[in-house]
Design brief:
19 helices; alpha/beta; 3 domains
């Protein structure tokens, strides 16, 4: 039976002897001399079973076994010590250790225990693989589309999800980076724990630091009690850092510390605390350019970009537009209690002709607005925002569209929006995505009356 065994022991003679006994059985053997190096090897290499001394120079083997089982549940840990006790034995098993033996007995007991542990590892891996195959078939269902560019990104997402690697998602605003990050989390070993998202562009430096790391009571005005930050809230789960390229440079060094050491300092606290989270970051900026401009730390970039996935803009996914539009139609028809709605062919063709600078987010908003203003079961071009109507190509299904047709469609659309807002022109301008002065000009141009309701 082949397998990868890691021996963690600061006593070189004992470590070497165990390594020789185990390697003679055909196992691959790695070695670590302390808590920190043992944890690093577990994180960076393929390990099946860990043989760990309880007393290490920089920590306790029982605590190490607990962390290993949290990070890699399929790894089995056998603890070895010269100072055995019933209390330690109970705690070790409670923390997930496979077994607990004392030095002097290990030479005779270690091989039978190793074979038993490897059998359990093989069974656990098989079960895990089956579960993840089932989960992987569903957890990316929220990422809608069948275009080649999107499917390529999804395939990368599936592969990295089952690891603990840090992921950097790049793509234009509105391409669905948070939805994609959630899918990675749902396919991961951390899926039963929290997924916590924060927009790095939405807070000032001080507020963002408190949001990240939490704060102690009295750390600043208004801090009346100890508060957890997102890294504590996401313990054993995933933290999603949206628009990470907007993060203030002062905070970048503190985030780097979390990535490198798994430790953070709360605002107003002097003692570091350990955290165990996976980080998925996202940006619509070219971080290489930001590095050259002095706005982003190069060392942080390389920590975040262990595995990069680019999400394609909607204009490169034209074949996905109809499926996305129908998805949003179902969502907003339910919200507005409008049943059995559909799109006309001209409406869908108009969507495909648009450039979608705002990507999926813009499409979602357009469909919501069209559902609100349409009075028909079949939603047609006249329900589109006037900005899209002006950009419709001159031919739809071979029919010429004249300037009069467009003006008439725009007039009807404005009337419907004014109706919907009960004559509130400020709200109507917002829904139409135009300035209030432009709306008044259009009202005058199309001779739309000043009444509250339009038929």
């Amino acid at each position: 039976m082949n397998g990868n065994i890691l021996i963690v022991d600061d006593e070189e003679k004992h470590r070497t002897l165990l390594g020789k006994i185990i390697s003679n059985e055909g196992f691959s053997v790695g070695q670590a001399i302390d808590f920190k190096s043992g944890l690093r090897k577990v994180s960076q290499t393929d390990v099946d079973v860990v043989l760990c001394d309880v007393r290490l120079p920089d920590g306790n083997g029982i605590e190490l076994s607990k962390i290993i089982k949290e990070k890699r549940p399929y790894i089995e840990v056998i603890l070895i010590t010269a100072f055995g006790s019933v209390a330690d034995c109970v705690l070790a098993i409670k923390n997930g250790a496979f077994n607990y033996i004392t030095k002097g007995e290990d030479n005779n007991k270690i091989l039978p225990l190793l074979y038993q542990a490897m059998e359990k590892v093989a069974a656990t891996k098989k079960l895990y693989t089956q579960e993840k195959l089932l989960a992987n078939s569903k957890c990316f269902d929220g990422v809608i589309g069948k275009s080649k560019a999107l499917l390529s990104s999804i395939e990368l997402g599936r592969k990295v999800a089952v690891t603990d690697a840090t992921v950097l998602l790049s793509g234009e605003t509105g391409t669905g980076k948070e939805v994609f990050a959630r899918a990675i989390h749902e396919c991961s070993l951390r899926s039963k724990n929290n997924f916590v998202a924060v927009n790095c562009a939405a807070f000032s430096k001080d507020l963002l630091e408190s949001e990240f790391f939490g704060h102690k009571a009295g750390a600043f005005t208004g801090a009346v009690k100890d508060t957890k930050g997102i890294f504590e809230e996401a313990t054993n789960g995933t933290v999603f850092l949206d628009e990470v390229g907007e993060m203030p440079t002062e905070l970048q060094a503190k985030l780097l510390r979390v990535l490198e050491s798994g430790e953070l300092l709360k605002v107003g606290e002097s003692k570091a605390i350990k955290v165990n989270v996976r980080i998925i970051a996202a940006t619509n900026r070219d971080l290489q350019n930001e590095i050259q401009a002095g706005n982003f730390r190069e060392d942080l970039f390389y920590r975040l970009s262990v595995f990069q996935i680019a999400l394609p803009p909607l204009r490169e996914r034209i074949v996905d537009i109809e499926e996305l539009a129908n998805h949003f139609l179902r969502v907003y028809s339910n919200k507005t209690n409008k049943k059995d709605l559909s799109f006309s062919e001209n409406f869908l063709e108009a969507l495909k002709q648009h450039t979608w600078q705002g990507n999926i987010r813009e499409l979602r908003n357009v469909i919501e607005r069209s559902v609100i203003v349409s009075d028909e079961k079949v939603i047609d071009v006249d329900s589109l925002p006037n900005t899209l109507q002006r950009n419709i190509v001159q031919k739809l299904n071979g029919k010429e569209i004249t300037a009069f047709d467009l003006a008439n469609a725009e007039k009807k659309h404005i009337e419907k929006v004014i109706n919907y807002t009960n004559g509130n022109k400020t709200e109507a301008a917002r829904l139409l995505n135009i300035a209030i002065t432009t709306l008044y000009r259009k009202l005058s141009e199309y001779h739309i009356g000043n009444g509250v309701h339009f038929n």
